[in-house]
Design goal:
By secondary structure, the chain is of the alpha+beta class. Helices cover 30% and strands 23% of the residues. 0% of the residues are buried.
Amino acid sequence: GPLDSSKKAVLGVAGIDSAGMFHDRVIGANSAVSGTVAMLAAAHAISKVDASVLSSLDSQRVFAFFEGESF
């Protein structure tokens, strides 16, 4: 749903690519998938919590996936 600007936000973030200048040649390119799987599992678990419990919390959950590294 939409973000509530009156509540704090707890961010869950994960990278969805490996760190390498040449993405086609990076060894271990699939290793970044572990963070993505963990984030999806956390989002799935939170989705099972009753909405009234989540809305009573003083913070909201935001999940973000980022691609691209800074070099």
